[in-house]
Amino acid sequence: MNGIAVKNLSKSFENRTVLNNVSMVIKHGSRIAVTAPSGYGKTTLIRVLLGLEQPDSGEVQTDGCKFSVVFQEDRLLEQFSVYTNAKFAKSDSIDKSFIMNVLDSLKLNDSAKKSVKTLSGGMRRRVALARALCADFNTLILDEPFKGLDNDLKDEIIDYLNDFCKEKTVILVTHDITDAEKLNCKIVDLTLLNNC
To answer: CA 65, CA 54: separation in Å to the nearest integer?
Structure first.
């Protein structure tokens, strides 16, 4: 199996079950959007896939996956420039023109030398996305990646992602079904998989 297999996954925090016997298969190259109300385990599922949380029971296989992630929090290097934050995800051998191309496509090229701590929330979100896209990956996880972006800019970025992520696996966590549809994702309602 080339991709991700989740089998009978369960996870609790302080006697509260967040994931209960969740199973799913995400084939390489597919796009899914994980949706559910807040508190239903969307981010926990992502953290388990990435190995940041250990399940209480069940199994996760990530055969051949090289992950890149946009977390809910931007997790940027505050003291460094936009360019340095984007480059941080890449090896020293990366072509500068590639990074600048990503920044340009995310409308950040004019801010490449600016310190991240001076940026607005929407710009910081785009830097986090740029950093993820500059990594060497075949599986992109996006946890509420478009918060703080106006609709026109969001649509432009989604169009860019659709082109950039051809033949890559995309896992979107979102409350916005419209964003999921524009990103050509199959909707996976976690409340239907989760036996809580």
So the answer is: 18
- Dist. CA 34–CA 19, nearest whole Å: 13
DSSP state of 41: S
Going through 36-177 in order, the beta strands assigned E by DSSP cover: 57-63, 67-70, 139-143, 169-173
In this structure, are strands 31-35 and 169-173 parallel, antiparallel, or unpaired? parallel
Say if CB 37 and CB 191 are below 8 A apart.
Answer: yes
State the number of CA atoms in the 13 A half-sphere of 137 facing the CB. Answer: 24
Q: Which two tokens stand for residue 165?
A: 């992520």
Average pLDDT over every residue of 8-14: 92
The percentage of residues in the chain with a pLDDT greater than 90, rounded to a whole number, is 74
Instruction: Flag whether pLDDT at 97 surpasses 80.
Output: yes
Q: Which range (1-10, 71-80, 88-97) has the least confidence?
A: 88-97
Which strand (E) or helix (H) includes residue 192?
helix 190-193
Which residues, in sequence order, are CB contacts of 27 under 8 Å at separation 6+?
2, 3, 169
Single pTM value for the model = 0.92
Please name the residues in contact with 80: beta carbons below 8 A apart, sequence gap of 6 or more: 88, 115, 116
